[in-house]
Amino acid sequence: MDAVLVSQYLLSGLVIGVLYSLMALGITFIYSVMKMINWGMGEFFMIGSYVQYALIVTLLGPSRWWLAVPIAMASVFLLGLVVQRWLLRPMFVGGIERRDEYATVVTIAMMVLFRNLAIVLGGPNQYAPPDYAKPVQLITLPISGNRFVALIGTVVLLGLFFVVIRRTWIGRALRGAAQNRVGIQTAGVDVLRLDMVAFGVGVALAAGAGALLAPDFLVYPENGAISTFKGFEIIVIGGLGSIAGSIVAGVLLGVIEALGSVYISAAYKDLYGFLLLIGLLVFRPTGLFGERERTA
Amino acid sequence: MKPRAHTLLPTLLAVAVLVGGLAAPALAQKPVKIGVLTPLSPPGDAAAGQFIVRGAKMAMEDVNNRGGVLGGRKIELVAEDDSGTPEKGAAGFRKLATQDQVSAVVGQFHSSVAAAAQVLAEQYQIPLFLTQASAKGLTEKHLNYTFRTHVIDPDRCVLWTKWVKERGFKRVALITENTDYGTGLVEETKKAFASMLQGVELKTVIFDRAVVDLTPQMLDIKNWKPDAILNGGVGTPVYLIIKQAYDVGLYPAAPMLVSYDVPVRPEYWKTLGEKGNWISFVVYYHPTMKLPARGEAFRKRYIEQFKEDPIYGAFNGYTQVAMIADAINLAKSDKGEDVAKALLANKFEGWNATISFSRGEGPYWQQWSPPMLVVQFTRPEMPFADVKIHYPPEVKTGDWMPATK
Question: Chain A residues with CB inside 8 Å of B244's CB?
C-alpha cells in the first residue's frame, strides 16, 4: 500500500469532513436551542452560494470574494431572523400542541419553496464563481485553492463560533437556553429573542459553507441537498446537540467515505456513513458525545 | 300534453343542427396535444431539457404557421418536468397520457427515466420518443411505442474506443455515474476494448450520481497514471469531474473525452473557465455541417431568435415534433396507435437526413442514429463554429492536440 496515497485519501477525507461539520454545526446548534430540526438547512446553504456568486459576478468582482462571504452570511442571517419571527415563533407562542410536526411541516415547505424560487429566479443551470485562489499542496495532498480557502474559512468560522459561545453574554445565554429553556426564562432572558438569534446564526453557518464551497461544488438549486444529508448523519453520529461531536463526527465521516469510496466502491459512498451510524447507534445510542436526556 | 310527431321531429332536427353546427367548429379547433417530458430541474440535466423544449416549441410554431394538422387543428405542446428521476418521469407520463391525452411524447433525455416511461407508453399506446436517452436496453426490448432518433451506447463506446486506438493510448480510465447510462457505458466499453484493442488497460470507476466530492476518485485515477480519461458524467457531474480532475493535477495532463455534447452549451465556460480548455467531446452536430431544407430553416430561425448556434438537443426536439405532426397527417388520426403505425410505415424529413424506423436486430429497433463526431476545444471561450473535428478521419477538419502549458 502506497503510504503517500493513503495519506492523500486521509487528508482529502479530513478536509471534506471539516467542511461537512460546518453544516452539521448549524443544524445541531438550532436543535440545541430551539429543540427542532430545520429540514430546510440545505436551502440556506444554497442561498448562501447564490448570494456569493451574485455578489462576485455583479458587484464585488473576483478578487473580493472574501468580502462576499460575510455579506452572504449576513444576508442569510437576516433571512433566518425573518423566517424564525414569522414562521417558527408561532410554534412557541401560538398554543401549538404538536411542535415537532409543526416544525417539520414548516421547514420542509420552506425547503420546497426556496428550491423552486431558485429555479424560477436563477434557472436550473449550474454556475460557479471564479476561483478564489490557485491550487496548493497540503502536505501530500494537491488541493484546489478554493477548497483550501474553504478549509481555512471553516476553521476560522468554527473558532469564532466557539469564542462567541464561550466568552460572550449572548453565548452564555444561548448555552443556558440549550440546557433549560424554562430555567433561563426565570433568570429574565427573553428566550424567544434568543431563538431568533440561534436560528439566524445556524442558517448563517450553512450559508457560510455554501459561499465558501461555491466554486468547488458549484451553484445550483439542489446543491445544498447533499450537505444537509451529511449534516444530519453527522449530528446523529456526534450526538444530537453536541458541538464538539459535530466536528469529530464530520471528520470521521469524511475519512471513512474517502477510504471506502477508493478501497471498496465509489458507487456506494453514502453507504459507508450509514454503516458507521448504524454500528455506532447499536453500541452508543446517544452518539459519540451525546448525553442521555435527564427527566424529572 | 303529448307532443305531436309532426311538431316534435322538426324541433329535434333544429336542435341537432344547432348543436352540430356549434360543435363542429369546436371539434375542428380542438388542438392536438404533444407531450414534452424532459428534465427541467436538477438532479436532471436541466439545461438539456431547456434546449429540447426550445426546439419542440419552434416545431410547434412552424406546424401551426403552416395550418396545423388534420385540416386545421393546431398543435399544442404540454411540457412536463421529469427532473431526471424515474418516479417523476412515470408520474409525468401518466399525467400526459390521462389528463392531457397527448398523441405522442418527446424529450426523453435520461435513460433511467425513459425506462420507466416506456412501460407506460406501451400501456397507454402512446409513442414515446427518446431525444437523447442512449442506453441500448431501451430499444433492445423491442417495444411497439418506443422510438429513438439518437445514438445508442454501444456505438458511442465503439467510437471512443477507436479514438483511443488512433491516439495510441495504453492506459485509459473511465469514470461514470451509477445510472443506466453510466453502467451501460462501462459494460459496452469493456466489450469494445476487449474486441478492438490489444494490450490496452481500462480502469473503471462508477460513482454515486448525487456525490459532489470526487477528490478520492481523482487521486486514485491519478495514481494509476492513465494516458487518457473518459468522462461518463451527465449534467452537473460532468463539470465536477473536469474541475476536480484539474484541481488534483490529473487533467489536462491526461487528456479527457466527454461522452456527449455538454461542452457546447453556453454554461460550459461560465462554470469551468480556463479549466474547461483542451477537452475533447462527442457531438452529433457541427455548425459547419451542410443541412437539408428542414434543418437549415431551423438553424437560421434559431440563430435569429436566440442569438446563438443551435444545440443538438434543440435540433432533435424540433425534428421529433415536426415528424409527429407529419405522422398525424399521414395517419389522418391523432390516436397514438395510428401515429405509431404511420411512423413505422413512412419516411420523414429530419434535421440532417431522411428518417425512417425499421425493426432491426438488437437495439436497432425503431432506431435512427445521427452521426457522431469527436471535437476539441483548444483555447478558452472557443466558439463552437471554430472547433475542429478530429475524429472520425473521413470528416476530419483538424488534428487533436495535447494540452500545452
Answer: 144, 216
A124 and B271 within 8 Å at the Cβ level: the answer is no
Q: Which domains does chain B have, with CATH numbers?
A: 30-151+290-356 (3.40.50.2300), 154-283+373-395 (3.40.50.2300)
Which amino acid does the sequence have at B148? Answer: R
Tell me whether residue A94 is exposed, middle or buried, using C-beta atoms within 10 angstroms of its C-beta: 0 to 12, 13 to 18, 19 or more: exposed
Q: Which of B250, B257, B245, B233 is nearest to B169 (CA)?
A: B257
pLDDT at B1: 45
ipTM of this complex: 0.86
Query: Could you report the per-residue pLDDT of A133-168, keeping only the tens digit for each?
Result: 988 999 999 988 999 999 999 999 999 999 999 999
**Amino acid in position B1:** M
Mutant choice from B211, B215, B238, B268 vs A, greatest count of A C-beta within 10 A? B215
Q: What are the boundaries of each domain within chain A?
A: 3-283
* Beta-carbon separation of A226 and B212 below 8 A: yes
CATH code reported for the domain at A3-283:
1.10.3470
How much of chain B is helix, strand and coil, in % rounded to 5?
50, 15, 35
**CA of B210: which chain A residue's CA is closest?**
A226
3-state helix, strand, coil in chain A (%, to 5): 75, 5, 20
